[in-house]
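User: If only I could read backbone structure tokens as easily as an amino acid sequence. Underneath my words sits a plain record pairing an amino acid chain with its backbone structure tokens. This is the protein in question:
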Amino acid sequence: MNTKTADALLYKKMVEAGAANLKAHADEINDLNVFPIPDGDTGDNMLLTVLGGAEVAEAQTLGETARNVANGMLLSARGNSGVILSQFFDGIAAGLDGVEPADVEKLAAAMNEGVKHAYAAVMEPTEGTILTVARESAEAAGQLGAQTVEEYLDGFLAEANASLMRTPELLAVLKQAGVVDSGGAGLIRIVEGMRRSLDDDFDAAVVDAPKIGAEKLDLGKFDENSVLEFGYCTELLLRLQTAKTDVENFDVSVITDYLQNIGNSIVAFKTGSIVKIHVHTMTPDKVLGFCRNFGEFLTVKIENMSLQHNNTESFGTVDKPKEHKKYGVVTVACGNGIKQMMLDLGADEVVNGGQSMNPSAKDFLDSFDRVNADTIFVLPNNGNVILAAKQAAKMYEKADVRVIESKTLGEGHAALTMLNTELDTPEEVESELYDAMQNVTTAAVSTCSRDTESNGLDLYKGEYIGFVGDRVLSADNDRVDTAKRLIDGIDFTDREICILICGKDSDAAETEEIREHLAAKHSMCEIYVIDGEQDIYHYIMIVE
């Protein structure tokens, strides 16, 4: 092909092809995880993000299509790389607004706008990441004087691959692990797919969302004698019709005002002639009937939440409206025991996720509705979840949402223990939450996923490692010995409490041996043992 311009149909095809190519390489991107535990999820995060855009890539104009893609990705974004990717495509949409079709010059300008949006999303941008790869590639491709879209994307990819190979020189942690940046590699796979979609022999692949962390529903959990307790999760794309309404001046609040009377967890936005709607309701038929007054449906999805709820255990995430309150708290955790611990400490909502299973912006938005408070404090408890939480906070308009940047489970736990909802102002509450996180250590024992070196220790695939943050303190083929040496490497000075959280595969005898070692070494500490039921981490220790 010799493509001079890109229109709505071609952009849709390019995004879908980008998603398909990333899907084929998601495991490869996951494996680029630099920390030596099996928690690599960059590929999954980026894939779920781009799929959120691909599934709504439908509109009459290029600008509308690009905006739909961006909005879909903003809602689906998860993990730092996913949020940055969504902002990159948000900038592209801004650059293509009102453009129909886009020539190479306009496309290049839109890509540069994407880079600007991506950098703006990160408070302290780090070079040697997806940001660097995107910036250097867009700059180089824009200077080529390309005459076709193919030439531009070829130039982008050539520089992207070169930029990716330079990332270890910019980030010591990548060089030490002998890998390139996973986010940058994921971006290349997306653009690679976009480029391939322009070839004459391109064969479009069917792109389905992967079922990450999801179990097959047991239909027997909801039978002829069951009571519909939790309603239906209802999502639809509505194409506004000129025969039914004033498309250009249509106010989406007409729909949201109606939905507030029959449901909750409402998310709705309009782009061009398309309205995307999400609502939890007992009466999806009323949703469909009302919305059809303004147009016709492009897609409809209705899921029985009672079936979903009965298939899993509930930890404060049931879509029943709660009594309105001044302050509310949303936190993030995985493992049934850990979730219950957070609820017992005062969290209103526990969003499922954490390491290797980052929640999306939409997951947070749904939880905000369920909290029903004037001010909502969010504890992400993981550095890779903070950006998604912040993105959701920006999008939410029904409450003052404040993200408390807790980077570990221990920080989130410490903050909750000091939660004081009697304080007069949100600023006072926020200050106390941050103060509470200052003197806490989170340590963990996991299994090494690759041969590498860290903190002066040679690590081998399959052995146990004990670490605080990214600093490995112990490594051994014996899990108990690894935990003991980890304990010996932690400073317990002026610490009063140690919480030992046991994972799914923990053993009662070895847990007791670890507890006894803690008690003997640090007799002044109160020790609590909790069955956390978490994956990946055999043991987690919170020292406060």
